Amino acid sequence: MKRETIPVSVIIMTKNEERRIRRCLEGVKAFDEVFVVDSNSTDRTADIVNEMGAILVNFTWDGKYPKKKQWCLENLPFKHDWVIYVDADEIVTPEAEAEIKKLFQKKPEADGYFAGYDYIFMDKVLKYGHRMYKLILFNRNKGRFLDYDDLDAMNMWEVEGHYQPQIYGKTEVLSKHLIHFDHDSLFDYFAKHNRYSDWEAVVRNKGLFSNLNESQIAIRKVQKKIFNKMPMKWVFAFLHSYCLKLGLLDGKAGFHYALARSMYYWQVGIKMYSLNSANKDRAL
């Protein structure tokens, strides 16, 4: 008997992900359609995708909008109106799968759903500190990734930055979590922070980060507005993760995660300072 599948199209974006893509694909077997949109990988990513029966689509960015996530919405030959974005370093847990399946046994009540992540740092699943939420499951006819004038961000790449899609309708939050293996090594983790802080410094410098039209969980929208007005964001980021969100209960990993999050915002701050200084010099 054929197993009943979830009527949702999965989108996984890759570039040289041979170490992680198999585990990710194992986690989305219950979904009816799986696209892997690959950016000219030079390792075995494509071979593994083909072995596992997912639909492999090549993507070459032209340096313009749309970037990769929105390009997928506009160009993939979907069978379904609903899509879910899963990164190659993420796993849809059996519990999250069951919750999503239940949603589609009847008509979903919202147009988009946020998911929380159990974050793995220094080989430890963090239970405290700071939970990341992303809007990953939505009706593709009711959402899009907007353009935020970030093409001049140094060292940024083809994928949209740290913001959510805009959903034209109601959003809710899934109760079950996915797992996020954020990095293969601390080198990868800090390299990603370096790229993202370049992007965020440019966007914040243009005054766009406090006015993003992305969909957001209500409480987080308020938190972001307050955080955006704070000086010395790096100090607050540490205190928020380690003290207010009880990251100290995660032991050594909790301390280092809070410190790393703090250093990310320190990077953003000095990069904004550098950009402002360069702009003043050009104006003279």
From TrEMBL:
<dbReference type="Pfam" id="PF00535">
    <property type="entry name" value="Glycos_transf_2"/>
</dbReference>
<dbReference type="InterPro" id="IPR029044">
    <property type="entry name" value="Nucleotide-diphossugar_trans"/>
</dbReference>
<protein>
    <submittedName>
        <fullName>Glycosyltransferase family 2 protein</fullName>
    </submittedName>
</protein>
<feature type="domain" description="Glycosyltransferase 2-like">
    <location>
        <begin position="9"/>
        <end position="147"/>
    </location>
</feature>
<dbReference type="InterPro" id="IPR001173">
    <property type="entry name" value="Glyco_trans_2-like"/>
</dbReference>
